[in-house]
Design goal:
alpha+beta, 2,3-Dihydroxybiphenyl 1,2-Dioxygenase, domain 1, 9-stranded mixed beta sheet, 7-stranded mixed beta sheet, 6 helices, binds fe (ii) ion
């Protein structure tokens, strides 16, 4: 049994209007559903984020897709592991199976196909010896406003990344993609993106970042620039990651988590072999933890979510 991918995440916020403004700035659409706000990518028929009002900001839940007809088997599997099923943690979120991970995060699995994202038009590029764009001025069309295609992945803070990895392997069939021992794990849901989910070490749970695929490098950087112009000035990028190899630019959200635009992530199959990543192998330093990047902000690993009582 393996889930087929990441559907959406829920975020509890003290002020939904502020959440709507932030995700709108980022290039996403939102709509009210009951007393919640549902955030989607233009042209994709799938919830990506559900904003739930609450006293403070914290990750509310994570939701995964499972093949249609597979939930009875998953329920038997979870029960055989002693994982207790629960009710949905808020009105309007009923459906599928709900349980808690070892850090107390609410996890939802729904019988639902992953919706196709809006198609990307492959840009013509001029590379040495291979000139595809002739008699066309790229700059006339390069200033594309950011409109993410899909939620690609998210990383959670975990109080024990090995325990979290093992739990999601055992319950949902996620597989290890790569690991930075003692620091981070990256997990896949089968063929596709190198990682759709993962964990970074912290003293307590929380949302580290969510990551959203955009159409091309111009859109990624116009997005970063637009976010800075709209007041979201703390960021990290442009860079190319180690695990996943994607190009990235992160912005800090108003509540201290990060949100990432990405393109060009490694795609993997069942043949992918997980590796342990090392600073020495990668010739990286803690200040530059990527193939290339600006110096990482110190706040990048801060977990500002309140500790559970
Ligand atoms: Fe990421």
């Amino acid at each position: 049994m393996r889930v087929s991918g990441l559907l959406h995440y829920g975020l509890q916020l003290p002020d939904l209007a502020r959440g709507k403004d932030f995700y709108t700035d980022f290039g996403l659409s939102s709509a009210e559903r009951g007393n919640q706000l549902v955030v989607r990518c233009d042209g994709r028929d799938q919830d990506q984020t559900v904003l739930v009002e609450g006293p403070d900001k914290r990750l509310h839940h994570v939701a995964f897709a499972a093949p249609v007809g597979s939930l009875p088997e998953l329920q038997r599997h979870l029960e055989s592991l002693g994982t207790a099923l629960q009710d949905a943690p808020a009105e309007g979120l009923q459906g599928g199976l709900w349980f808690r991970d070892p850090d107390g995060n609410a996890v939802n699995v729904r019988e639902q196909e992953l919706a196709p994202p809006r198609l990307v038009i492959r840009p013509k590029q001029n590379l040495a010896g291979d000139y595809q764009r002739v008699d066309e001025a790229l700059w006339l069309t390069a200033n594309t406003p950011p409109r993410p295609r899909r939620l690609g992945h998210m990383l959670l803070f975990s109080s024990d990344i090995n325990r979290s990895q093992e739990f999601y392997e055992r319950t949902l069939g996620l597989r290890l993609s790569d690991k930075i021992p003692g620091a981070a794990v990256f997990m896949n849901a089968g063929p596709g993106d190198h990682h759709v989910f993962g964990f970074v070490r912290s003293s307590h749970p929380g949302l580290h970042h969510s990551s959203w695929e955009v159409g091309n490098l111009d859109e990624l950087m116009v997005g970063a620039q637009t976010m800075a112009d709209r007041g979201h000035r703390i960021g990290w990028g442009l860079g190319r990651h180690f695990p996943g190899s994607n190009l990235f630019h992160y912005m800090r959200d108003p509540w201290g988590s990060w949100i990432e635009y990405f393109i060009d992530m490694d795609q993997i199959t069942e043949n992918w072999q997980a590796r342990e990543w090392g600073w020495d192998d990668a010739k990286a330093t803690p200040e530059r933890p990527a193939v290339w990047c600006p110096v990482v902000p110190e706040a990048f690993m801060h977990n500002l979510e309140p500790k559970p009582e």
